[in-house]
Amino acid sequence: MKDTVVTGFRVIGCGIKSQALIEQVRVLRFDGLKTEVVTESDVLSPDSDDQMVIVLAPDYFEGLNNLLKKFYQAGILTILISACNFDLPSGVCDSCTTVKPEQFADIVKVLAGSLFVQGFVNYDFNDLSLTLRNTGNFYIYEAEGKFAEAVNSLSKQSGIFEGAENGALLITVDRDKTQVRVEDIELLSKYLSTLPENINMRWALYNDDTLSADTVRISVIIAGKNCRNNRLEK
């Protein structure tokens, strides 16, 4: 599947240290994804076509709350990825996660990739918004290997859905090299049946021709006001 052109989404790096991180995001080559670095919070405001903004904060940034608040109060899905825990007041962003800076681009790839790549079963912006809107915290777990291996890796991560309200399961394969079998779907369904009933789960299926034969990558987005704000694991 070819990448699609999408507008209304941007990634903002806070401070000079974010320049290298923004370059890593640009390497993802999502056509239409705006990227920029700011050194002062007052120089940037929402655009009329903005739907989602992902803010990268590798270090303390004076005016971060003000920057987030401008987008959040404009009704734009506002996501913060930071390298340290900021004591954010209420009403400044929809959801945030804290990971190492070298993992920032990985998280952007999971969040934005589902919007910019056409899938067999799509996970669109409405789905992402329903998953993350006003959830406070989110984190991402990825497992890669043969289908059974990836699902078993997820099932061994006890407590990753603790406190979660919403979740998304994004499955990626190379359709020319890997066939998703009925028994694979049954295994996945069995795993999903073990999750707490109160979690709103969504799922999608994508193609990636860089994956090896018989390899699947499963990305899980978990969000909720009381969920654990874990680092991205691989």
Set out the fold topology.
Elements: E1 9-14, H1 19-26, E2 34-38, E3 52-57, H2 64-72, E4 77-82, E5 95-98, H3 104-116, H4 125-132, E6 136-145, H5 147-155, E7 166-173, H6 182-192, E8 200-207, E9 216-223
Parallel strand pairs: 1-2, 1-3, 3-4, 4-5, 5-6, 7-8
Antiparallel strand pairs: 6-9, 7-9
Helix pairs in contact: 1-3, 5-6
Description:
By secondary structure, the chain is α/β, with parallel strands linked by helices. It has 2 domains: 9-116, 3-Layer(aba) Sandwich (Rossmann fold); 125-223, Tubulin/FtsZ, C-terminal domain (60s Ribosomal Protein L30, Chain: A), CATH 3.30.1330. It contains 6 helices and 9 strands, in the order βαββαββααβαβαββ. The longest helix has 13 residues, at 104-116. It is globular and about 55 Å long. The model has no long low-confidence stretch (mean pLDDT 89).
